[in-house]
Amino acid sequence: MSAPLHPSITHVPRPPRIARLPVDHRGYPVPWFVVLVNGQPDHRIIDSAKLPVAHQEHRCWICGDPRGRYLTFLLGPMCTITRTVSEPPSHLDCATYAVQACPFMTRPHMVRREAGLPDDWRDAPGLPLHRNPGVVCLWTTRTYQPFGDGKGGVLFRVGDPTSTAWYCEGRPATLGEVEASLTTGLPALQEVADREGREARVALQLMTTQARRYLPRQEVVHEHA
After folding, report:
1. Is residue 183 part of a domain?
2. What is the number of domains present in the chain?
3. At residue 37, does pLDDT exceed 70?
4. CA distances from 66 to 2, 70, 91, 215 (A)
5. Which of 3, 158, 160, 201 has a C-alpha 20 to 30 A away from that of 215?
6. Would you say residue 14 lies in a domain?
7. What is this structure's pTM?
8. Is residue 223 in some structural domain?
9. How far lies 184's CA from each of 38, 78, 143, 203, in Å?
């Protein structure tokens, strides 16, 4: 399974580990975690059997190679608040490539197609928000902890970051773009906290304040041709 790269990503430098991945018929590298449906990769579906392998064997979620001491998670703005995510960490260079080449992350208005999903497909563990947040954070840390979601699934709680980097449309995100995504996503978390009571609302406020420490430090200016 190999094809020429899609024209939209030929300019994105490929780390050697990404260059070794197969390329699908559309021209996109196939991450290690992707499941094959009738012999073809379906980028919408993760191979759940690889979740414990990635954790126990310390493998990169994107390329499948062994990880180092630093672990990079791809987090939407709400995940930087809850410090919880449904996918294991990757190498920083693999994650950086993903935010510049993955169509879902480089096209903020794209929505995931639901047609043709297998009958036994199920959503990610936890409380997934069915929206494209438009921005994504490369959250690099040295620690994380898996835990059960109470429904038979596994989630990952990320440790304090050693570094963060925000992306939108395949390039560094502006502070305004991150703030806008944060503002539009918060009501979903607030709704859950309201149902759980005062302590949950106070905890959410504290977590939100902490998460804001990791927003871009200053506005990024992008020139448009």
Report:
1. yes
2. 1
3. yes
4. 23, 11, 9, 29
5. 201
6. no
7. 0.85
8. no
9. 38, 10, 29, 19
